[in-house]
Design goal:
By secondary structure, the protein is an alpha+beta fold. The protein has one domain. The protein has six helices and three strands. The protein has helices at residues 25-30, 33-37, 41-53, 57-76, 90-96, 101-104, and strands spanning 4-9, 16-21, 80-86. Strands 2-1-3 form a three-stranded antiparallel beta sheet, covered by helices on one side. It is globular, with a radius of gyration of 14 Å.
């Protein structure tokens, strides 16, 4: 289970999305389907294809990477951080996802 969750808000549409931080158990067990359900279609399709081609081994690898990839996808789509629930301090959390707090904070 992810140790933290970042809640994002799109300032243009008002849409809200939650992004877990850390290991993705759902990706490990269900491959690309969590990405598809979150609306991350391109990467979800790639994950499903790779999972079929590697007999599921790629799902284990993506489980370590996917949540960070999803956060970067949301930031690229214009989402801003609205709230953070974390078991770690915020500096350690943002160091883990390799982003700066100022880059993500909502004005």
């Amino acid at each position: 289970m992810a140790h933290s969750t970042i809640i994002f808000k799109n300032p243009n549409s008002g849409g809200i999305k939650e992004a877990p931080v850390g290991f993705s158990w759902t990706t490990m067990f269900f491959g690309g389907f969590p990405a598809l359900l979150r609306g991350h279609i391109g990467l979800g399709v790639i994950q499903v294809i790779l999972q079929l081609a590697t007999s599921g081994i790629s799902a284990f690898i993506f489980a370590f990477l996917y949540n960070k990839m999803y956060i970067k996808y949301l930031v690229g789509e214009g989402f801003k951080v609205k709230d953070i629930t974390s078991l770690k301090d915020k500096e350690a959390l943002f160091a883990e996802i390799e982003m700066e707090l100022e880059e993500l904070a909502e004005n």
